[in-house]
Amino acid sequence: MDILETIKQRYSCRSYQNKPIEPEKLETLMEAARLAPSARNVQDWRFVIVTDAQTRRRLQHAAADQEFVGQAPVILAACSCTNKRMNLCGQPYASINVSIALEHIALAATSLGLATCWIGSFKPQSVRKILNIPTHIEIVELMTIGYAADEPKSPKRLSLDQIACHEKWNY
Fold first, then answer.
1. Residue 10: how many CB atoms within 10 A of its CB?
2. Which residue segment(s) compose the domain that 106 sits in?
3. What are 45-89's pLDDT values in tens digits?
4. Does some domain include residue 171?
């Protein structure tokens, strides 16, 4: 599948089949993350791959009791081991670098017939305790991964002329 087709097919899945993900597919997803670019090549992303059903249920509770979170056969806790900021613009490495790696994972998952969902609604301190993540590590995001049990939903998207202009701001 070409990359634009993969991008078009990716969606936020909120219902998963009770089917484990093959180890080789998980390894491919982690390889996709490993190859992501990062600010100054710090490669600060770290992932906790959770497949244990009891731990997934505990993470579901930490993620606003969203049922599909515990239903997914894999939950990733995506973390960063740096608190650096970009020199001039001041943006944090952590959220940008980890987000790029997660989107590599999401697109690779789609190309492998898997579905994902970014989870931003979670209690970091609860996740930290459940997964024994040290306090100096930033938990950026959670992501569910699995075989979809629902149908892809294509949200309405703005047109290109609503999101991009040339040479200067003209909205």
1. 17
2. 3-163
3. 999 999 999 999 999 999 999 999 999 999 999 999 999 999 999
4. no
CATH at residue 95: 3.40.109.10
Does residue 170 sit within a domain?
A: no
Q: For the CA atoms of 103, 137, 89, 42, what is the dihedral angle to 10 degrees?
A: -70
pTM reported for the whole predicted model: 0.95
> Of 43, 77, 45, nearest to 145 (Cα)?
77
Which DSSP string corresponds to 89-152?
T--BHHHHHHHHHHHHHHHHHHHTT-EEEEE----HHHHHHHHT--TTSEEEEEEEEE-BSS--
Structural domain includes residue 168: no
